[in-house]
Amino acid sequence: MRKKQANSIERHPKQYAKQRKDFTEEEVAYYTRTFNEKNKYMSSEFKELTPKEFYRSIFPEGTFEQFNNMSEHKPNGILSILYDEEQGGRSYNRILFDDLGMLDEVAGKEFVIASPIAFSGRTRSSKMAYKIYGITIDLDGIEVENIKALISQMQQGVLPMATHLVNSGTGLHVYYIFDTPVPAMPNYFDSFNNLKKALIDIIWNSYTSSIKERQYQGIFQGYRVPGTQTKISPECIVKAYNVGKNVTVRYLNSFVEKKERADFDDSNYTSLQEAQELWEDWYNRRVVNNEPVGNYKLDEIQKKRRRQWYEGWKNKIIKGALDGNRHYCIGVLFNYAMKAEIPMEEALEYALSIVPTLNALTVTPGNAFTEDDVYAAEIYYDRKFIKMGRKGIIRMTGIDIGETKRNHRPQKEHLEEARAIRDVRMARDGRKWTDGRPDKKEIIEKWRIENPSGTKAECIKATGISKPTVYKWWDSYLYKIKKLRKETDRWDLPKYYVVKEDKDALVKLQEYYSKGITDVEILTEKEVEDINELHKIKRKAEFFEEHKSDERFVNNHEMYTDYYLAWEIYYDK
Predict the structure, then answer these.
(1) Which range marks the domain in which residue 310 is found?
(2) Contact, 139 vs 147, CB < 8 A?
(3) 213: how many CB neighbours lie within 10 A of its CB?
(4) Could you give the count of Cα atoms lying within 13 Å of 90 in the half-sphere of its Cβ?
(5) Cα(474)–Cα(459) distance, integer angstroms
(6) Which of 139-148, 227-236, 510-519 has the lowest mean pLDDT?
(7) Residue 31 burial by CB count (10 A; 0-12/13-18/19+): exposed, middle or buried?
(8) DSSP string, 8-72
(9) Is residue 71 exposed (0-12), middle (13-18) or buried (19+ Cβ within 10 Å)?
(10) Cβ contact 238:168 at 8 Å
């Protein structure tokens, strides 16, 4: 028996006082039967994995530190035991070393979670995250027919093929394990959370779940560990199955809209050395002086304004809280209180006062909202969540808080006025704000086309153009179009096609087949977008070819530059 690890996580004493759901005998019988049916089906179709096989497929040998040998300074996995009946309901963390031996020690425990992320140290938090090894989607209300529909949609290419499926109890955990782990850099968190939300939107559909209201979690959310208990009963043990291969981020991105894709590009990450040159004040505050995020004091006017946000959110909780978002609604309340420098005690007193109101919204059996849920949400009263913004709040709670206004005007009008002021000021000096841009832009475009595999650093050295300018025009419109032209030879969409990301893609495909139309192509949203972009180029080029000798083109060449460029690209001039 290995030496027990010291407790590494502090919780409110009431936070995990009770974990087992209050199911009736009839509900336990129903969920147990459904759970066993799911296991029977998946074991007949896929390879069942032991807990160690499951986590070894996520974290290859050599990923973590060795037990009793931490000289290599590697990360670890974290197992969070949220309720240990043998220790009086105590909650604590355990380190998962490279031998995965801790899985044997937590086997059969009531409530143990983990995420496909490696951490530095003993704390399972975004601040201590080291690498992200995958994304997990949690589906609720799952029966065998839902799993069959899920697999069918994956095999049809409507949904991304999962790496693993985990029968977690009443639901199903869908694991997408990355070919290459993603560095857990803070500038990636938002875009990966957006990707996960978009994946939930398409994977959780009317065929794959019996529950209409989707539930969203972030990338750091932990999920029940295979080999431990489900919430149904001690006899129902979480089981894992291998379904497909590891995936790339690019593959997952191809199933969602462009704005929801993960921005996994190392060139977007600024090193500390570059940050020191670009943002000296920030570097001194955050790196040299080690000041925390949002380390500032509010004046009275700012406190008053933020107090209004806090009070406004109270009303939104009462109007917008649902069975599936109540925990996060209270979490956002604590977050607003922290940002407004409102004492924790005041926010806690209000949150506890509305527990009966929120509990009355319960729909799912055994999912009562209690004071324990309020205490669990206190974690959001922390400055590490100072950057929780509008998009994050909407994603967590599903409650729209409205867009920010600029001087009580929409962004478009605000920018119009700002640009007008800019132009007036530039005119006084006899300059235009676009001076100097076209030449350098064209130089960079030309260099990229001539050096398709060249790097930014090589471009800076070869052209003598400054680093900020090269970074600014690295992906210009003209370069993108010319690059796109090299990647595809299609200028028009096919007559019959369905978009893979469309939630009704499978239905549309079946409709085509029922009509005897078999030459149907399945295109990704990006492919449709690219072909449409080239189709616009084609139309402009054909128009220019027909009218290029017209007086309006000859005498106004600069006004019709885009037509001329389209003509050059389409006809390979």
Answers:
(1) 300-397
(2) no
(3) 15
(4) 11
(5) 9
(6) 510-519
(7) buried
(8) -----TTTTS--S----HHHHHHHHHHHHHHHHHHHHHSEEE-HHHHHHHHS-TTSSPBTTB-TT
(9) exposed
(10) yes
* Tens-place pLDDT, residues 324-335: 889 899 999 999
| 3-state class (DSSP) for residue 111 | strand
CB-CB contact of 444 with 476 (8 Å) = yes
Model pLDDT for residues 402-413, shown as the tens digit of each residue? 766 556 566 667
For residue 97, CA distances in Å to 66, 70, 78, 280, 433 come to 6, 10, 9, 39, 57
**Phi/psi of residue 289, each to 5°?**
-90, -5
Q: For the chain, how many structural domains are there in total?
A: 3
- Using alpha carbons, list the distances in angstroms from residue 515 to 155, 431, 495, 511, 512: 22, 63, 15, 6, 5
Q: Determine how many CB atoms are found less than 10 A away from the CB of residue 543.
A: 15
Please indicate, yes or no, if residue 446 is contained in any of the structural domains.
no
DSSP single-letter state for residue 164: E
Same domain, 232 and 322: no
| 10 close to 124: Cβ distance less than 8 angstroms | no
From CA 147, how far away is CA 125, in angstroms rounded?
Answer: 31
Q: 507 and 570, same structural domain?
A: yes
Q: Are residues 119 and 223 in the same domain?
A: yes
Helix axes 390-397, 186-203, angle to 10 degrees: 30
pTM reported for the whole predicted model: 0.49
Instruction: Note whether 529 and 387 are same-domain residues.
Output: no
